[in-house]
Design goal:
Blueprint: E1 5-7, H1 11-35, H2 49-74, H3 82-89, H4 91-95, H5 110-134, H6 141-172, E2 184-186, H7 187-193, H8 195-202
Antiparallel strand pairs: 1-2
Length: 204
């Protein structure tokens, strides 16, 4: 590895990230297709309507396994510290690029940690409601109606957060996405966005 790059994520971590991301996008596309006739053409991503109805819950199962692995991998690093709360209080400065007024972040800043928790809760709701809808004969009609609405709302919430996630990782903060492509970031990127982590990684 070049001395200008720092290793941020392992190969396994990147695989889990892409499994979760890819399966969620397919689930979102097919789910929207089931909900809106005008979007039914989206089922072509998995071979058409009949295939989508069969594959949707199974892809959801893969998503659930991926989310569980993600939880195991990153849970310990996602608890908020006192510095993180200070970072949240200074988030307006982070958004306006006044980094000298923002507490130095470690490997993950408070915004990334909160994103992890919100997506984790949405995924849990998404999976539980999906299981109920997968075996509707085992539950009453009133519960099915509630779970269908819950599933839909969780999917939309996750989709909105996905858009924000992609925007922040590409347009807003260039150089971020490469961490999940080849696992590395430049030293300049690390020093700018995660100074405490940069110091930990370069301390000799």
């Amino acid at each position: 590895m070049s001395d200008q790059l720092l290793r941020r994520f392992t190969f396994f971590e990147r695989v889990i990230h892409w499994v979760v991301g890819t399966t969620f996008v397919v689930l979102l596309a097919t789910g929207l297709a089931f909900s809106y006739p005008a979007l039914f053409w989206l089922t072509t991503v998995v071979g058409g309507g009949p295939a989508a109805r069969v594959l949707h819950p199974w892809i959801g199962a893969v998503f659930g396994v991926g989310m569980s692995a993600m939880l195991v991998l990153w849970l310990r690093e996602m608890f908020l510290s006192d510095t993180d709360w200070q970072w949240i209080g200074a988030v307006r400065y982070y958004a306006t690029r006044q980094n000298d007024k923002v507490p130095a972040a470690g490997k993950y800043n408070a915004g990334q940690k909160l994103f992890f928790w919100v997506q984790g809760v949405l995924a849990f709701v998404f999976i539980v409601s999906g299981v109920v809808l997968w075996v509707p004969e085992a539950f009453g009609s009133s519960l099915l109606v509630a779970m269908r609405l819950t599933h839909y709302m969780a999917a939309l919430g996750g989709g909105l957060f996905l858009i924000v996630h992609i925007y922040l990782g590409t347009v807003a903060y260039p150089g971020t996405a490469r961490a999940m492509i080849d696992g590395t970031v430049t030293r300049g990127w690390a020093r700018h966005h995660h100074p405490r982590w940069y110091e930990e990684q370069t301390r000799s």
